[in-house]
Design goal:
Layout: H1 2-6, H2 8-26, H3 34-57, H4 67-119, H5 136-144, E1 149-154, E2 184-188, E3 193-198, E4 216-223, E5 237-243, E6 246-249, H6 261-264, H7 282-288
Antiparallel strand pairs: 1-2, 2-3, 3-4, 4-5, 5-6
Length: 329
């Protein structure tokens, strides 16, 4: 009580710092803004350094900190920050990608389901021409009605970063998606870049066990943060099976062909030759709510290990219509 009465500011700032650092170590960065946290702690440290020695010097029996002691304290806090804050920032960046992917999946899945309800299945959308044998122009025109697009590039450039995307091992693709005429491309008002291709106008390509995966038409690809880095499969770029009955995240537990999880969300060295390695991490992110495949090996749908720290066995990816259930943030 005497401390609180005589040194209110001193105790208040100390308690503030202690509580903030407890937040840093006890809670995931996803629950608070790391940038705001750093700003608040820095402000508190400046106040602490400027005012505490003066306050303590006027308080009987409590010696003031000298400049060397304050400098040493700030250095120690700086070292702690250097070792913890980068990890927090990286974790928050991953969390932002997860949130963006869930948002985009919800928007596009709902829009395509509505388009199917009102116009029939995608095999009925296509009008084949000599210049457009797969009917992508028809798909583009129809999807334009259901999504709030900031830009519609058609077959041309401008909706994706003008780079060649990399896979999870850092191997660069041999094709620049922004320039690829085999995809129709557009950009949402939130900055998400989207590309769609259709290989089969009958939508009867078989990729797996569910009725959706037995009726694949083509692919829908998304860069959830647009032109921003890292422009890498499985980090900000994700794929979906564009099926007769809606979108299915690539890499789901019931997908055995096409782009299965085992071969296209794999950081093992023997998978680095696949340009699209990382494209099928989509289902993992949506269903397991993490991107731990970037940090450790051995994650798969069969052994029950869904995080780097998980050592248990169990049944994961239990399906909703055979695809799994997306966790809410």
């Amino acid at each position: 009580m005497n401390c609180l009465v005589q040194n209110f500011l001193y105790c208040q700032i100390r308690l503030y710092l202690i509580l903030n650092f407890l937040l840093l170590f006890l809670f995931s960065p996803r629950f608070f803004d790391v940038t705001l946290f750093i700003r608040k702690v820095t402000t508190a440290l400046i106040i602490y350094a400027r005012h505490i020695p003066h306050i303590l010097s006027e308080t009987a029996g409590i010696p003031a900190y000298n400049g060397a002691e304050i400098t040493m304290s700030l250095c120690i806090l700086g070292i702690v920050a250097m070792n913890t804050i980068p990890a927090c920032v990286a974790e928050q960046a991953k969390n932002s990608i997860i949130i963006a992917l869930k948002r985009d999946y919800s928007i596009y899945s709902s829009g395509i389901n509505l388009a199917i309800h009102e116009n029939g299945t995608p095999n009925d959308w296509v009008t084949n021409t000599t210049s457009d044998p797969t009917g992508l122009s028809s798909i583009n025109a129809l999807l334009y009605k259901y999504f709030k697009m900031a830009q519609n590039c058609g077959f041309g450039p401008g909706c994706f970063p003008d780079v060649k995307y990399k896979n999870l091992k850092g191997v660069q693709n041999d094709t620049n998606l922004n320039q690829d005429p085999n995809y129709t491309k557009f950009r949402l008002i939130d900055g998400t870049s989207v590309a769609v291709t259709q290989w089969n106008s009958n939508c009867d390509v078989d990729w797996g066990e569910s009725f959706q995966l037995k009726n694949v038409c083509g692919l829908m690809l998304m860069d959830v943060n647009g032109d921003k880095a890292p422009n890498t499969y499985g980090m900000d770029f994700f794929g979906f099976a564009f099926t007769k009955y809606g979108l299915v995240p690539l890499g789901s537990p019931l997908q055995q062909k096409g782009y299965p999880f085992s071969g296209f969300c794999n950081t093992d060295s023997n998978a680095n030759f696949k340009y699209e390695n990382g494209l099928s991490c989509t289902a993992w992110v949506l269903y397991n709510d993490n991107m731990d495949y970037l940090d450790c090996k051995g994650l798969n749908w069969n052994n029950g290990k869904t995080t780097c720290s998980d050592k248990s066995n169990g049944n994961n990816g239990n399906s909703n219509n055979g695809q799994g259930k997306v966790k809410d943030k």
